[in-house]
């Protein structure tokens, strides 16, 4: 039973820190250009 008293707050802390990291990524414009990286692989940069 004492294990649950430790594991539940740890799980809540990890979940809240993940949620905070997600909101930080949204605020710092990490998800602005979702298609740019996917289409960048199709561009041929080599010049012969």
Structure description:
With 48 residues, the chain is an all-alpha fold. The protein has one domain. Helix content is 69%, strand content 0%. It is built from two helices and no strands. The protein starts with a helix and ends in an 8-residue tail after the last helix.
Total strands: the figure is: 0
State the low-pLDDT regions, or none: none
Query: What kind of assembly state do the chains in view correspond to?
Result: single chain
Count helical runs. Answer: 2
**Total number of distinct structural domains:** 1
The Rg value, from CA coordinates, equals 20 Å
Globular, elongated, flat, extended or rod-shaped: what is the shape?
elongated
Arithmetic mean pLDDT:
89
Query: What summary fits the major beta sheet?
Result: none
The termini sit apart by: 69 Å
The ordered H/E elements are HH
Please report which band the strand proportion falls in: under 5%, 5-15%, 15-25%, 25-35%, 35-45% or over 45%.
under 5%
**Relative helix content:** 55-70%
Structural class: mainly alpha
In short:
The chain contains 2 helices and no strands. It has 48 residues and is mainly alpha-helical. It has one domain.
Distinctive features:
Cyt_oxidase_maturation_cbb3; mainly alpha; 0% strand; Cbb3-type cytochrome oxidase assembly protein CcoS; 48 residues
């Amino acid at each position: 039973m004492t294990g649950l008293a430790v594991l539940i707050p740890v799980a809540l802390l990890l979940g809240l820190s993940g949620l905070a990291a997600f909101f930080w990524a949204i605020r710092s414009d990490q998800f602005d250009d979702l298609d740019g990286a996917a289409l960048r692989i199709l561009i041929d940069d080599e010049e012969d």
